[in-house]
Amino acid sequence: MSRRHFLKVAGGTAVASSAVLAACTTSKDDDSNAISAADVPKDKMTYRTNNNTGDRVSILGYGMMRLPVEGDFSGRENPDAPIDQELVNKEVDFAIEHGVNYFDTSPAYCQGRSETATGIALSRHPRDKYFIATKLSNFDPSTWPLEESQKMFHNSLKELKVDYIDYLLLHSVGGGKDAIEEFNGRFMDNGLLDWLVEQKEAGKIRNLGFSYHGDIAVFDNLLAWHDSGDYHWDFVQIELNYLDWKHAKEINERNTNAEYLYAELKKRNIPAVIMEPLLGGRLANVPDAIVADMKRRDPKSSVASWAFRYAGTPDGVLTVLSGMTYMDHLMENIKTYSPLRPITPEENAFLETIADKLVALQTIPCNDCKYCMPCPYGINIPAIFVHYNKCIKEGNLVRNEQDNAYKRARRAFLVGYDRSVPKLRQAQMCIGCGQCEGHCPQRIRIPQELAKIDEFVEKLKRSDPKD
Q: What global pTM score does this model have?
């Protein structure tokens, strides 16, 4: 059977995501103690060696997905604002000075501006001081023709101001409503994957891999190609954190536990690049009771540092990506990995109990990445999910009208909902078209979740608790 058409007949029917999500971020609400530049060591960074090339890679990778923008906003808060290039330069300079040498970007990040900003910042440093990772982010079918995808690759070289890419990824494989058909359209039927292999042989690509978000059949089949020798993967990017390790599928039946993904790479000696160590900030912004548990265990460590230490502990991990918008997060993460204190067996057992508690909250696994946007009907999908999850975290999601806290929780939910999401952008406006669903990296059944939230809101409005 031709490997070009192998995926067309491969098993697996799970719906997958075509979204792009390779970097992670902390929240401004993280409980970390303020630190200064003087607290951050310059010569203590932990490094891992890529056995394929001998690259000595910093365990902390800089995700260039949520770069700071002008006006003291993050890119999440004001995505249309110009990137603050001066601040990007300062943060990149600080990162390199303190041992970070892996920088991850994409043509799709920051509304197409990340590669340009990354290239400007990094080109001010000697080329041997950093490794650049970028992606073939050809999600739109208009980019599937070979010449269009080739243009995307060459434009990456131009924007990044380099002659070669250190780590090139097929971006978000397994995505789309028909993951197998989409993978073939993006990389196989057009001959693109074979062309990328030729670019590697010509020295334009040093390491070729893929980032995985989706249908497990695609992940397994790409590794089967590695086993057979059809294609060799120098590295693979996966989502790994202490919640997804055993609970990813429990949280969302479409997902795959990180324990399985990592084990499959480890047994093949394929280096793993880790995304979402904080699940889009959710593991840095946990309920107060869990924060208290962590502080009792280790008063000096932030909630976020637990997650970063966990993600960096497996020896098959090459680097852990973090999308660090703010300098304080950059400093804290460098400090966490300078050097890395691996999670002990006792600490691992402790984090397993934390994961169990987080699963019990039954939050919606939204990372506020906004790849479901824009909604054609104007619904602010991530804002709705963020508010819903926030109310769960703060104990303001009380369903029993007989509960003593119901009146307070009802008011907090409804008032907060109207303040954070304009009425014409709330869940009741969803018609269930499903356009958003194929773009969600967490593979959330978005229309179903919006319908449940709308039903809950209507129930709150109809209830009339008495004093």
A: 0.82
